[in-house]
Amino acid sequence: MKFTQKTKYFIFGAIATAVLVPLGTYAVKTIPVTFAEGDVVSASVMNSLMTRINDTQLGFTADSDLSGAWTCTVTDVANGAPDNDCAQQDGIFYKKSMTVTFDSTAKTYTRSSAFRCSASATKLKGSYGIRGGLLGVTYTNDISVNSFRAVKVTPDTFNVYEDSAVANCIKQSIAPSPADALTATVSGTSVALTWTDQSTDETGFKVQYKTSAKGSWTTATTTAANTTSYTLSSLTPGTYWIRVVAKNTNGDSMSSSEVQAVVTTTSTFVSSTSSSISAKGTCIANC
Question: What's the CA gap between 264 and 115, in Å, rounded?
Fold first, then answer.
């Protein structure tokens, strides 16, 4: 799945002007990301993307990388009649689901069923370790070490291979998917924001802004879950960089793409001796 940002410009008259420039985009599940011609990508969004890329490229470097519970879907080419709750698919392949939980402190793991369709269902717990993409496990009451090839696909997804079987594992407790398609509309001293909610498990959205490109982010509010709009009010004239960050009990998502909104002076002065009106709010005569 790819998300392509589009640069948009809106001008709201001579009194209040807003120029909206999406400053970044991201991938919820996959990388690379495509960009449209003329898009400007902010450093913060690019750093988030590079962090995802580097994390995936480095693979697993410590046992703690696997810590937590994962939902794994196993695809197996079974010899003979499969067992262990495997469902036949396409006549050759068999699929099953399991939960695997890793405890990096105790260096132990448990799983809800056997990895292979035709494997023994008794080897459901033991100890583990992982380095450089090699997952080593020992089963309880078994001194032999078994090895599997583990490939990190995203920071929250990995595949593990054994002979003719592969398991795709997705972490159960993760931050929500990021908000998308953030837009802003300036009216006087307010900026109305709208965005797309791409998550089903967020507890709210942080609406954040800063007043310089290298400034620090300020959280204006944290909305309720499923919110897709908010209005920043009583802003002083100036340029604002704005983003939205989804959150839940597992942490914050990647930020949305950023928008830049320009708030200008909104007052209009009328001369006491003339009907002349300023184009940008400057007093003309006898104010």
Answer: 63
Residue 120's pLDDT is 63
Domain total in the chain: 2
At 71 the pLDDT is 93
Domain coverage including residue 118:
59-171
Cβ-based neighbours of 207, under 8 Å, separated by 6 or more: 193, 219, 220, 221, 222, 223, 230, 232, 242, 244
Q: What is the pLDDT of residue 122?
A: 67
Which residues, given as ranges, of the chain have pLDDT below 70? 1-41, 78-85, 118-122, 265-287
Domain co-membership, 85 together with 50: no
CA dist 136 to 30, 41, 71, 144, 258, Å? 27, 41, 19, 10, 43
Residue 120 burial (10 A CB sphere; 0-12, 13-18, 19+): exposed
pLDDT above 70 as % of the chain: 72
**How many angstroms separate the CA atoms of 65 and 7, rounded?**
37
**Residue 209 · residue 242 · CB < 8 Å:** yes
Distance from the Cα of residue 174 to its chain's centroid? 10
Domain check: are 137 and 274 in the same one?
no
**d(C-alpha 25, C-alpha 91), whole Å:** 41
Q: What is the pLDDT of residue 273?
A: 35
